[in-house]
Amino acid sequence: MKPLFTILFLLIVQIFSAQEEDYDYANGVFHFEENKTQKIFTDWARIRQSPNVNAQILDSLKTNQSILILKKDETILKLGERRANWYKISYQKGDEISEGYVWGGNLAVSYRNKNGYDFLFGLTKTINKKDKQYPEINIQQNIAAIKVVEGSTLVDEVSFETGSGESLSYGTFNIESNHKLQNVELTLKATVSGEACGIASYDQYVLFKDKKLIALPQLMNVGDADVYYHSEEFIFPNDKGGIPNAFIFKMEEMEKDDKDREKKKKASKTYLWNGSSYKLK
């Protein structure tokens, strides 16, 4: 009977959480400052006359279009687990400057430019997935993507999971070195994380070579004060302990028992890189 009670409990928590979240704040990754330039992430994002999905459509903008945030509207639209404010924006097309409202979920969480390419990180949708431990329960899973754009042309795109809405308190996106991996031009790293204990953060490394994006296995980190933690990281060739033409996955977790004794577990595995793809050693 215990598993049944556990499932019922999780279902009840899920229902009440869903009810509470309808009145919750917007996901922090979609907070954009006024008078700052941002980028359109979704293709053909609709620009409306007012902050409402039923408002007149004034225009639609392609991925990588630069826009200026004029003002954040207090109206929040929820699509799946993505909650974002509407923003009044201005943008230029040709010689004309126009204004309108765009939903914050259609904007890039962050973007970078390097070697003539624009790299954009954003969230695309929410899907339902069965919980691995309790298949009877569906959980909502956010899907993110990294896009590389040259001018106005989409060169490549790669998608990956980013956990639930709780893990979207903030996000970062950086361009790192090639980590001395053969033929790799750049390494991109996208991160989303929650603010509370027990909320997982996710690191997604993506390699860029020959105008192609290659996603590495995703890393997850979570912990609760000094009670337990689970950490994952990659050791690249240019890191201490790294080896040529490979990257090493390392995991460590700790949990304290009822007598406050630490129980630790470690694991590692090596992925070989041949200059164009990787495989587990």
Task: Write a brief caption for the model.
This is SH3b domain-containing protein. InterPro entries: SH3-like_bac-type. The chain is mainly beta and 281 residues long.
Descriptive terms for the model:
281 residues, mainly beta, SH3 type barrels, nine-stranded antiparallel β-sheet, 1 helix, 19 strands, globular, disordered N terminus
List the helices and strands and how they pair.
Blueprint lengths: L1 H20 L15 E3 L5 E4 L8 E5 L4 E14 L2 E12 L2 E8 L6 E5 L2 E14 L7 E13 L2 E9 L8 E7 L9 E8 L7 E9 L2 E4 L3 E6 L3 E8 L10 E11 L5 E12 L4 E3 L1
Antiparallel strand pairs: 1-4, 2-3, 4-5, 5-6, 7-8, 8-9, 9-10, 11-12, 12-13, 13-14, 13-15, 15-16, 16-17, 17-18, 18-19
Describe the structure.
This protein is mainly β. It has a domain at 9-107: SH3 Domains (SH3 type barrels), CATH 2.30.30.40. It has 1 helix and 19 strands. The protein has one helix at 2-21, and strands spanning 37-39, 45-48, 57-61, 66-79, 82-93, 96-103, 110-114, 117-130, 138-150, 153-161, 170-176, 186-193, 201-209, 212-215, 219-224, 228-235, 246-256, 262-273, 278-280. Strands 11, 12, 13, 14, 15, 16, 17, 18 and 19 form a 9-stranded antiparallel beta sheet that branches. A 4-stranded antiparallel beta sheet has the order 1-4-5-6, with no helix packed on it. The chain has a 4-stranded antiparallel beta sheet with strand order 7-8-9-10, with no helix packed on it. The longest helix has 20 residues, at 2-21. The protein is globular. The model is unreliable at 1-23 (pLDDT under 50).
